[in-house]
């Protein structure tokens, strides 16, 4: 019974341009890796801008960076790392063909991703209240008027980078939702699990972006009081 | 009798009919034709802007359009031509159609993504077209800050959004090609047996995949700066407008190689076929493509010689720019050496290829001029630079694109184009091109700045020559447009291999069946082994 389902699923899933399922899986995986490389280049532009301005205004960037709440940032990092772990477990469950396991771990991943975004939204909201949003009413305490613009640059980059990261999380959450729906309908098996695998790659990539963002934005030159 | 047999055979064009069978097709050949149609539209749109520019420049005073309109004209000419014609032209039309066939695949690795990338180009094009119709944009195709972010009150965002979306079309095409070349080659099609067009398209795809995302993020930052004034390119807040130029040229210089590498691939094919000799130094041409793709990423700074870049950085970028000329020169020498003792036929694709070699050589050599620091300071932002890059983009890419279109037209449509008219068009375009752009070298050297429509009287003679040339050029471009359409109905029926070429795409019928090959090809010899096609001579009308 089970073998019938996946044998059928496989023949449905093999597209006509490919000769074998292995070739198709290979091609999809390579495609995903190349896509991730384009994502590295995409984020790279912002990392470059950050590096340039961090080097130009090191002291002011350190002061601006200290106004971020490092404990919340660290907690959120842990949440995201846990979501990567549950994602790995989902891929493992898919490799073993355990549909219930896939659904369970994907839901956990989705929940942890949701927690991360919720905390991020809380942090952004704090910035609004503290007048740390770039714009006419921007003000960071303890800086001379001519330094406010440089501090604002830090927050511009902070919002651009964490915003872009959050957008990728939202897209990832959407992908997880589709996967959960498909997994519940028994779409995946030990033989055909490429979408779970590839979404896993994407999820880990978004995680790794945060692993770079967290020290850059929260930790460099910071002295815990 | 043969005619009847050809008409009854099923192929990709008569497999299904109706608008839906085209708009929802996943066949790379049909998608290639969709691209052909789209980029042709943008080519003539960009051409219309160019026409108005040349008409305005007939007289030293601004009497045809206002300064504001003139700024919009050259901007929209650049945007339409660069982002919506040149970049998608060869890879997305001829590459889409022939890359899978040349490596013996049934289709690209991701046919649905392939269709998606056409839609992205159309949507991006629609945004930019909307911006043009709504009032245009006047920043120049380079969108330099702070003018584009703070001062310009034209449709910057809509145009940039169109380019952003079209960029993803380019990224997805590149991704699709890379995976296809890696995973879809027919049995026996080793890397060193791949046709050179495949090599050069592969190298192009690498640039598309690595470079275009940087343009995308640059546009995102431009958008944030213009809409929210976040300060990233604004000196008032400590931002650096030149950072925009670095990011922009990090993509847009390699983008020149997105335009010219596939063109070089076509020339490698055509020169070999019409000399009936394997390309001289196949390996060198293949690796030169890869070298250009890599080195092309290291030269962007030569666009910033006068933009506050340090002299040290200028020296390094100048040196690297000289360096990238080496693989380009290798190709030119190898094409020339391929001709030596070849059995040369002056068929239309070959005439266009000769045009390419001559014009690309001039464009490349003047590239060395402007890569030299001292000379570049003299000619920065003059017509010398305009002439230089038009020799590469128009003299190079469009000549090769037309060479490729003529070369593969019989395969795509099953019909021959009229040889006499086609040869004439190659001649008219070559003459018209030189008459248009050679005077611009002199203009620039004498000090005529680009992007001005009012100029001193002594420049008028050269401007009139250039405009006269543009008229000849326009006639030259309209000719293929007319006889290609004519040939669809009245052209001679083409055989499977009218040129006696060796590529896999010629081993199947013209036009090809839906899945390209009736039985999967197995490759047993090198790409250009003409002993396998003895007896199939080049048939020229």
CATH class (first level) name of chain A: Mainly Alpha
- Strand-pairing-aware structural class of chain A: mainly alpha
The largest β sheet of chain B comes out as: none
Amount of beta strand of chain B? under 5%
Q: Strand tally of chain B, please? A: 0
* Radius of gyration of chain B using CA atoms only: 23 Å
- Radius of gyration of chain A (CA) equals 21 Å
H/E topology pattern of chain B: HHHHHHHHHHHHHHHH
The count of strands of chain A amounts to 0
- By DSSP (H or I, 4+ residues per run), the number of helices of chain A equals 7
In helices, the fraction of residues of chain B equals 55-70%
Name the average pLDDT of chain B: 95
Q: Quick check: average pLDDT of chain A?
A: 91
CATH architectural group of chain A? Up-down Bundle
Description:
The complex is a heterodimer of chains A (225) and B (541). Chain A is mostly helical and 225 residues long. Chain A has helices at 2-13, 21-56, 58-66, 70-95, 99-129, 145-184, 194-219. Chain A has a single domain, classed as Cytochrome c oxidase, subunit III, four-helix bundle (Four Helix Bundle (Hemerythrin (Met), subunit A)), CATH 1.20.120.80. Chain A is built from 7 helices and no strands. The relative contact order of chain A is 0.16. With 541 residues, chain B is an all-alpha fold. Chain B has a single domain (2-533), classed as Cytochrome c oxidase-like, subunit I domain (Cytochrome C Oxidase, Chain A, Up-down Bundle), CATH 1.20.210.10. In chain B, 56% of the residues are buried. Chains A and B meet through helix 2 and helix 6 of A and helix 7 and helix 8 of B.
């Amino acid at each position: 019974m089970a073998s019938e389902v996946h044998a059928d699923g496989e023949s449905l899933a093999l597209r006509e341009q490919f000769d074998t399922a292995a070739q198709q899986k290979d091609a999809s995986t390579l495609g995903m890796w190349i896509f991730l490389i384009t994502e590295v280049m995409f984020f790279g532009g912002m990392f470059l801008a950050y590096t340039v301005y961090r080097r130009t205004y090191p002291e002011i960037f350190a002061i601006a960076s200290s106004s971020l709440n490092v404990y919340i940032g660290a907690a959120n990092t842990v949440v995201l790392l846990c979501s990567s772990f549950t994602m790995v477990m989902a891929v493992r469950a898919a490799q073993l063909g355990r549909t219930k396991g896939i659904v369970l771990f994907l839901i956990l991943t989705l929940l942890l991703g949701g927690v991360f975004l919720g905390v991020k939204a809380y942090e952004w909201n704090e910035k609004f209240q503290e007048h740390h949003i770039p714009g006419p009413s921007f003000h960071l305490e303890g800086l001379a008027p001519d330094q406010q613009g440089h501090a604002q640059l830090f927050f511009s980059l902070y919002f651009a980078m964490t915003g872009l990261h959050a957008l990728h999380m939202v897209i990832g959450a959407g992908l997880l939702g589709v996967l959960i729906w498909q997994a519940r309908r028994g779409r995946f098996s030990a033989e055909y699990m490429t979408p779970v695998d590839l979404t896993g790659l994407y999820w880990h990539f978004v995680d790794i972006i945060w692993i770079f963002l967290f020290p850059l934005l929260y930790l460099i030159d910071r002295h815990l009081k | 009798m043969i005619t009847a047999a050809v008409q009854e055979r099923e192929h990709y064009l008569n497999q299904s009919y109706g608008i839906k069978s085209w708009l929802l097709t996943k066949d790379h050949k049909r998608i290639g034709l969709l691209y052909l149609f789209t980029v042709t539209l943008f080519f003539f749109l960009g051409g219309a802007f160019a026409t108005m520019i040349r008409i305005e420049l007939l007289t030293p005073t601004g009497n045809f359009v206002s300064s504001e309109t003139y700024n919009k004209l050259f901007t929209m000419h650049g945007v339409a031509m660069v982002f919506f014609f040149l970049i998608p032209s060869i890879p997305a039309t001829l590459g889409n159609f022939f890359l899978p066939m040349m490596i013996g695949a049934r289709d690209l690795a991701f046919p649905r993504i392939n269709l998606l990338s056409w839609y992205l180009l159309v949507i991006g094009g629609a945004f930019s077209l909307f911006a043009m119709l709504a009032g245009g944009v006047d920043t120049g195709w380079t969108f330099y800050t702070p003018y584009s972010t703070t001062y310009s009150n034209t449709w910057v965002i809509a145009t940039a959004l169109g380019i952003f979306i079209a960029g993803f079309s380019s990224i997805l095409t590149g991704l699709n090609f890379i995976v296809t070349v890696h995973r879809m080659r027919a049995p026996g099609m080793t890397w060193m047996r791949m046709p050179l067009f495949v090599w050069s398209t592969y190298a192009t795809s690498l640039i598309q995949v690595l470079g275009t995302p940087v343009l995308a993020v640059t546009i995102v930052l431009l958008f944030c700066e213009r809409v929210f004034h976040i300060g990233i390119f604004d000196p008032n807040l400590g931002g650096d407008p030149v950072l925009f130029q670095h990011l922009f040229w990090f993509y847009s210089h390699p983008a020149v190689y997105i335009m010219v590498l596939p063109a070089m691939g076509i020339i490698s094919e055509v020169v070999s076929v019409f000399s009936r000799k394997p390309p001289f130094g196949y390996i060198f041409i293949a690796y030169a493509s890869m070298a250009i793709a890599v080195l092309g990423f290291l030269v962007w700074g030569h666009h910033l010689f006068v933009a506050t870049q340090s002299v040290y950085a200028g020296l390094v970028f100048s040196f690297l720019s000289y360096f990238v000329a080496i693989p380009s020169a290798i190709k030119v020498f190898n094409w020339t050496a391929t001709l030596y003792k070849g059995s040369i036929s002056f068929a239309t694709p070959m005439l266009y290829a000769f045009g390419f070699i001559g014009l690309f050589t001039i464009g490349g050599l003047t590239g060395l001029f402007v890569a030299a620091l001292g000379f570049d300071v003299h000619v920065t932002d003059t017509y010398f630079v305009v002439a230089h890059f038009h020799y590469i983009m128009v003299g190079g890419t469009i000549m090769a694109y037309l060479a490729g279109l003529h070369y593969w037209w019989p395969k795509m449509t099953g019909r021959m184009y009229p040889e006499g008219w086609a040869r004439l068009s190659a001649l008219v375009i070559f003459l018209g091109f030189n008459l248009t752009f050679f005077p611009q070298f002199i203009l620039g050297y004498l000090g005529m700045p680009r992007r001005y429509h009012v100029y001193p009287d002594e420049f008028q003679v050269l401007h009139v020559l250039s405009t006269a040339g543009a008229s000849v050029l326009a006639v030259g471009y309209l000719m293929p447009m007319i006889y290609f359409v004519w040939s669809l109905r009245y052209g001679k029926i083409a055989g499977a291999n009218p040129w006696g070429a060796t590529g896999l795409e010629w081993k199947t019928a013209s036009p090809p069946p839906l899945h390209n090959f009736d039985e999967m090809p197995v490759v047993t010899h090198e790409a250009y082994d003409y002993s396998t096609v003895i007896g199939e001579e080049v048939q020229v009308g």
